[in-house]
Design brief:
Elements: H1 2-20, H2 43-54, H3 56-77, H4 86-100, E1 105-111, E2 114-121, H5 124-135, E3 142-149
Parallel strand pairs: 2-3
Antiparallel strand pairs: 1-2
Helix pairs in contact: 3-4, 4-5
């Protein structure tokens, strides 16, 4: 039994030493954007990423994230939207729009319940849905839509 204990402890120490031997990597170690050659993604990779973003599974994941955020807010703030973090509101609105407006290129900013949505969407019907979708998120009081309709490039 003593030999087994010694063996297990030495194994854990050896594993720990091996895992810690590599230095931590930070953004300072990362190559600069203008350093080396930066290549645009292949057209096929872009199409695949767009298909993934528009898939039903992705929409389901986004809606589950929104629900989890709402449950977390309910647990932390007793469901009160007044104390909800601006970043959380913006994130939830962004997820809601991403899940329901495919091909939209939108940015979301939130401050004290006021949400500003900017960018482009491919169709007028999608532009008309932005305000109602954003207001579905708890903590959103007003929505300003600075988005326009533009065909994707």
């Amino acid at each position: 039994m003593k030999k087994l204990t010694v063996f297990l402890l030495s194994s854990v120490l050896l594993f720990g030493a091996a895992a810690c031997s590599e230095q931590a990597k930070t953004t300072a170690d990362a190559p600069a954007a203008n350093e080396g050659t930066v290549q645009a993604p292949e057209a096929e990779d872009t199409k695949q990423a767009q298909a993934d973003a528009e898939s039903k599974l992705r929409r389901k994941q986004l809606n589950a994230d929104i629900k989890a955020n709402e449950e977390r807010n309910n647990a932390l703030n007793g469901g009160s939207p007044e104390d909800k973090d601006d970043g959380a509101v913006a994130s939830e609105v962004r997820s809601k729009l991403e899940a329901n407006i495919p091909n939209g290129q939108l940015t979301v900013e939130a401050e004290d319940g006021a949400v500003v949505v900017a960018g482009t969407v491919p169709e007028q019907a999608q532009l008309d849905k932005i305000e109602s979708l954003a207001k579905e998120i708890k903590g959103v009081n007003t929505v300003t839509v600075n988005a326009t309709v533009a065909k994707p490039q």
